[in-house]
């Protein structure tokens, strides 16, 4: 069996380099971080020593995969030119930081279009292209959204279109992150039609472009368009889709990250969730198809 790429979004409080040790503490082999404070525009100073410390800590803690998540204020689909430019600048900085830190993937939420869907997709794609052109190295992973308000990227068609609007060769650095909670909230029934949903993903987006999974259960029902994460197997999705994902060889090389509630004890809860997912994986029967 290939090695699991399984971990959590962990805090970088006290310094980026502390994330890797936190990941190891919860039994993770993969980790997701914010490389800056996600609710502020302010850009952090990142000196060479901090970069080196981060790179060393990733190695020392045996992590196999690192991804970053872009800041919440960024809206690359914004119709407001001032906010759009500010977002592009911030996203570009994110790519630059990741390039220096050796982080190969930036998970990014498509923006909110506010006025017109197609115009929003075009603005969003233009922004991605501009940043990919400006910074060599990291790939972006466009995350599926729950489709709250005018958020882009809840329909598979929108995600595929976003990618297609980015020209080659930059398009090659564009993949996807599927969030199980968001997909379900957007109306794709992973609980009762697991195979159908992934078949549709493959037909519209292409499974080969899936690089990351956010494994979160959902507090709200199918099609609610509301984004609230629940513990694995304890929300509306229930254990089955997660069991299927952990045992499905098509997802072996996909980085799996939990963003489940951390309660008052992040270490305990994250460790518990990862243990649960590993148990699903280890019960895998090698060649027989799951019912
Ligand atoms: Zn997510
Ligand atoms: Zn979410």
Task: Please tell me about this protein's structure.
With 291 residues, the protein is of the alpha/beta class. Helices cover 38% and strands 14% of the residues. It has one domain: Divalent-metal-dependent TIM barrel enzymes (TIM Barrel, Alpha-Beta Barrel), CATH 3.20.20. The strands form 2 sheets. Strands 1-2-3-4-5-6-7-10 form an 8-stranded parallel beta barrel. A two-stranded antiparallel ribbon has the order 8-9. The protein is globular. It binds zinc ion (2 copies). One zinc ion binds next to loops.
Descriptors:
291 residues, alpha/beta, TIM Barrel, 8-stranded parallel β-barrel, two-stranded antiparallel ribbon, globular, disordered C terminus, binds zinc ion
Summarize the topology.
Elements: E1 6-9, H1 18-25, E2 30-33, H2 48-60, E3 65-69, H3 81-101, E4 105-108, H4 117-134, E5 139-143, H5 156-164, E6 174-179, H6 180-185, H7 194-204, E7 210-215, E8 217-218, E9 229-230, H8 239-247, E10 255-258, H9 266-282
Parallel strand pairs: 1-2, 1-10, 2-3, 3-4, 4-5, 5-6, 6-7, 7-10
Antiparallel strand pairs: 8-9
Bound molecules: zinc ion (2 copies).
The site of one zinc ion has 5 residues, from helix 6.
């Amino acid at each position: 069996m290939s090695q699991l790429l399984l971990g959590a979004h962990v805090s970088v409080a006290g310094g980026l380099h502390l994330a890797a040790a936190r990941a190891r503490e919860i039994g993770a082999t993969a980790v997701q971080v914010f490389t800056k404070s996600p609710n502020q525009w302010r850009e952090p100073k990142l000196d060479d020593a901090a970069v080196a410390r981060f790179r060393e800590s990733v190695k020392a803690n045996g992590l196999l995969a690192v991804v970053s998540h872009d800041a919440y204020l960024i809206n690359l689909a914004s119709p407001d030119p001032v906010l759009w430019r500010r977002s592009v600048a911030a996203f570009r900085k994110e790519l630059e930081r990741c390039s220096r830190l050796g982080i190969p993937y930036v998970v990014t939420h498509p923006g909110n279009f506010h006025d017109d869907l197609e115009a929003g997709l075009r603005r969003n794609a233009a922004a991605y292209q501009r940043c990919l052109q400006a910074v060599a190295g990291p790939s972006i992973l466009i995350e599926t959204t729950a489709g709250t308000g005018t958020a882009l990227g809840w329909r598979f068609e929108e995600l595929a279109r976003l990618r297609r609007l980015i020209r080659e060769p930059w398009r090659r650095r564009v993949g996807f992150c599927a969030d199980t909670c968001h997909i379900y909230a957007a109306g794709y029934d992973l609980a009762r039609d697991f195979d159908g949903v992934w078949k549709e993903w493959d037909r519209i987006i292409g499974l080969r472009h899936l690089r990351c999974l956010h494994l979160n259960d959902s507090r709200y029902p199918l099609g609610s368009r509301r984004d609230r994460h629940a513990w694995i197997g304890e929300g509306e999705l229930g254990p089955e889709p997660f069991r299927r994902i952990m045992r499905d060889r098509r997802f072996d090389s996909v980085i799996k990250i939990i963003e489940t509630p951390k309660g008052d004890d992040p270490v305990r809860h994250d460790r518990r969730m990862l243990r649960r997912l590993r148990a699903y994986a280890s019960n895998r029967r090698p060649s027989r198809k799951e019912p």
